[in-house]
Amino acid sequence: MIIVKDLKRCYGTGDTAVRALKGVSFEISKGEFVAIMGASGSGKTTLLRILALLDDATGGEYTIRGLKVSSLPEAERSYYRLTQVGYIFQDYALISEMSAAENVYLLSLMEGKSKKESYRTALEALEKVGLEGKHDRVPDELSGGEKQRVAIARAIAKKPDILFADEPCANLDTANSKQVLDVFKDLNEKYGQTIVMVTHEPWHIDYVDRVITFKDGSLLSDERKSEGPKEH
Ligand SMILES: Nc1ncnc2c1ncn2[C@@H]1O[C@H](COP(=O)(O)OP(=O)(O)O)[C@@H](O)[C@H]1O
Ligand SMILES: [Mg+2]
């Protein structure tokens, strides 16, 4: 599903240039739940942002479902980013004045879908993350884990090909982290959602199929826990 070939990202130029990705190659199959690990500064966020089309590589190739997205025109990249890619941030990035349901359906409304259809899709997504009944709460009335689950609902409402999450549990205690990881595992197992999650917590490995570890902008190891992707 994803093919990454010799991907490079250099920030700045000359003596001060930082080579955040030094040419990494790997493939991710449909239905895999992959953890990206590695020390702080090893290039994890840089990689995820490029894979989610939030940033451009400075070298190499990136293909999603046979489509060479690294060389698409910007308009098509935007379309792909908005409709096919879900992204979950460490800090949830919710709008504090809006209810859970409104946070989830805002994007769909902006795409021109009807309010009724957007609301229905939002409730469905909130149910998938175990937040049925909490759709009218604002973020301040939700725990950290619940806020992150609203963010996951927002990301999955558009039924993306791939879900990317950059340290989604970084601000959560163990109990809330488990709730969030259980939701990812459920989405992966029940709906075959492909997920790429950055984390630095060794215990999170229990939830995933495969662990790719980065060191100083290069791939250090790539370990699969089960034999190949699951059938769906
Ligand atoms: N916008 C930027 N400008 C310059 N350097 C950056 C920028 N973003 C990240 N870096 C550098 O690139 C390297 C990799 O960063 P990052 O991808 O954020 O690592 P990680 O997510 O693994 O902590 C680090 O040395 C970091 O300082
Ligand atoms: Mg990071």
What can you see in these coordinates?
The chain has a domain at 2-91 and 160-224: Rossmann fold. The chain has six helices and ten strands, in the order E-E-E-H-E-E-H-E-H-H-H-E-H-E-E-E. It has helices spanning 44-51, 74-84, 100-110, 115-128, 144-156, 174-191, and strands at 2-11, 18-28, 33-38, 59-64, 67-68, 85-88, 162-166, 194-198, 210-215, 218-224. The strands form two sheets. Strands 6-7-8-3-9-10 form a six-stranded mixed beta sheet, sandwiched between helices. A four-stranded antiparallel beta sheet has the order 2-1-4-5, with helices on one face. Helix 3 crosses helix 4 (115-128), helix 3 packs parallel to helix 5 and helix 5 runs parallel beside helix 6. The longest helix is centred in the last third of the chain and has 18 residues, at 174-191. The radius of gyration is 18 Å and the shape is globular. 41% of the residues are buried. The structure holds adenosine-5'-diphosphate and magnesium ion. InterPro entries: AAA+_ATPase, ABC_transporter-like_ATP-bd, ABC_transporter-like_CS, MacB-like_ATP-bd, P-loop_NTPase. It comes from Methanolobus chelungpuianus. Keywords: ATP-binding, Nucleotide-binding, Transport. This is ABC transporter.
Summarize the structure.
Helices cover 32% and strands 27% of the residues. It is α/β, with parallel strands linked by helices. The chain has a domain at 2-91 and 160-224: P-loop containing nucleotide triphosphate hydrolases (Rossmann fold).
